[in-house]
Design brief:
302 residues, alpha/beta, globular, binds zinc ion
Length: 302
């Protein structure tokens, strides 16, 4: 015979089991774009935060205690990889003592390994600055890369949380439909940008330029990761007299002084792109990020 109290406890357990499961997986994204994508695909089944924000240089951050705690509790780490985080992520993972999210584990997803890469050097020469052996890691400004990332991320969520696999699959399908339609819209809007010449601050706009058909005639940095010098900017001004550019681009996290200098002397618009989600108040999610990016480029190219 089951005593009334036991019966009550069994009842409670059954009620709890039939409740919709929530916050099944703890995700730590290295960059805001992967946090935003995790929200799109994981909905209320995931808890996610980002190690870096849009106003930080993703190459360099400091591992604060709060971030170490989030790393310790993560079931899944979603990062660009391609050495973008090599200055801080290995130390962070090691300090967290969380073996589940180590390199090569199901708890680690490297998006950069899944996309076609640009600027893969024939040989790595560190004297050429911050050169990445695996290619240019700033992959998130080509929405086709986001589409590839979504497929892999939804599969990984389903693998780690099989009881919600159907949910992740349905959200991925819905996201893919909306994303494909949005890409078509952006590509139509951006048609006038084909062939437009620009100057970029750092070599971090290549995927965006490759997607929309822009090309760079110069960089504010003399070498990747080396801040612009007066001598280099002077040379660049000379180059622009022979090969004019329509605008100078920088990401929201980059210092604006070199851009402003060139804007004044070369008389071209200095354009700040959000670069990732949160880089501008209007870039609230992945869709508004690209809406705003295309809009800023079109305004400057007029
Ligand atoms: Zn870089």
């Amino acid at each position: 015979m089951i005593r009334p109290l036991n019966k009550f406890l069994i009842g409670l357990a059954l009620a709890a089991a039939s409740l919709p499961s929530h916050a099944g997986i703890n995700v730590l994204a290295c960059e805001p774009e992967w946090e935003a994508l995790t929200i799109e695909l994981g909905g209320d089944k995931v808890k996610v935060s980002s190690a870096t924000n849009a106003l930080q240089d993703p190459h360099r951050i400091e591992a604060r205690p709060g971030l170490i705690a989030r790393t310790r509790n993560a079931d899944l780490l979603v990062c660009t990889g391609l050495e973008l985080e090599s200055g801080w992520l290995p130390v962070l993972v090691q300090q967290s003592g969380n073996a589940k999210i180590g390199y090569g584990q199901p708890g680690y997803l490297e998006i950069g390994a899944l996309v076609p890469r640009l600027d893969v050097p024939a040989k790595v020469d560190r004297s050429e600055g911050d050169v990445h052996a695996s290619g240019n890691p700033h992959i998130q400004q080509d929405p086709r890369n986001i589409a590839l990332a979504a497929v892999a991320l939804s599969k990984r969520l389903a693998q780690l949380d099989p009881s919600n696999a159907a949910y992740y699959r349905a959200r991925q399908q819905d996201f893919a439909n909306r994303w494909t339609a949005a890409m078509r819209k952006w590509e139509q809007q951006a048609a006038p940008l084909r062939g437009v010449a620009v100057v970029e601050h750092h070599k971090n706009m290549e995927y965006l330029m490759g997607w929309l058909g822009l090309h760079a005639v110069g960089m504010l940095e003399s070498k990747p990761g080396v801040e612009p010098s007066a001598a280099h900017l002077g040379e660049l001004l000379g180059v622009l007299q022979r090969q004019p550019a329509k605008m100078v681009l920088r990401a929201a996290y980059q210092d604006g002084r070199a851009s402003a200098w060139l804007h004044e002397r070369a008389h071209i618009p200095a354009v700040v792109l959000p670069f990732t989600v949160g880089g501008d108040d209007k870039a609230k999610d992945l869709f508004s990020l690209f809406d705003l990016t295309v809009q800023r480029l079109l305004e400057a190219a007029k």
